[in-house]
Amino acid sequence: MAKWLFKSEPDVWGWDHQVAKGDAGEEWDGIRNYQARNNMRAMALGDLGFFYHSRSGLEIVGIVEVCALSHSDSTTDDDRWDCVDIRAVRPLKQPVTLEQIKGETALSDMILVRNSRLSVQPVSDAEWALICKMGLTEP
DNA sequence: GCCAACGTTGGC
DNA sequence: GCCAACGTTGGC
Q1: Residue nearest to nucleotide C9 (CA to C1')
Q2: What are chain A's domains?
Q3: Could you tell me which of A105, A75, A86, A82 has the C-alpha nearest to residue A8?
Q4: pTM (2 decimals)?
């Protein structure tokens, strides 16, 4: 199973909103970037991802699961753009901050660090395991 | 709120 | 096909 990271500004769509959607989940819509779209197209049902608060949070706060494969984005008529649905699985017991991630040599190649503008990105198994450990949370 | 970095657009 | 101009993102 591949691992991913989803970024959102908490003021616009935060972890609490995601949790409120329950097991039904919600479209991860509004993505207008080819790389991010291609990452979503590569996702499988049951893939897990981190939920990251950008801009005013700067920390990974929870784990989500892909609950619908890539489909057309209902917020646009432009058929170039797709999205998956995701649902909240569990919060991290201890959020992992960007500062902490930057402080870990093993995480210095994360896309989150290297390309801060990509909003949907892959995470390696090693990165996943370490961040879960830092978050005192089951992988 | 600022601005650097990045991605996209469009004129040539 | 190049690249300048523009818009957006996100860390600070």
Answers
A1: A117
A2: 3-134 (3.10.590.10)
A3: A86
A4: 0.96
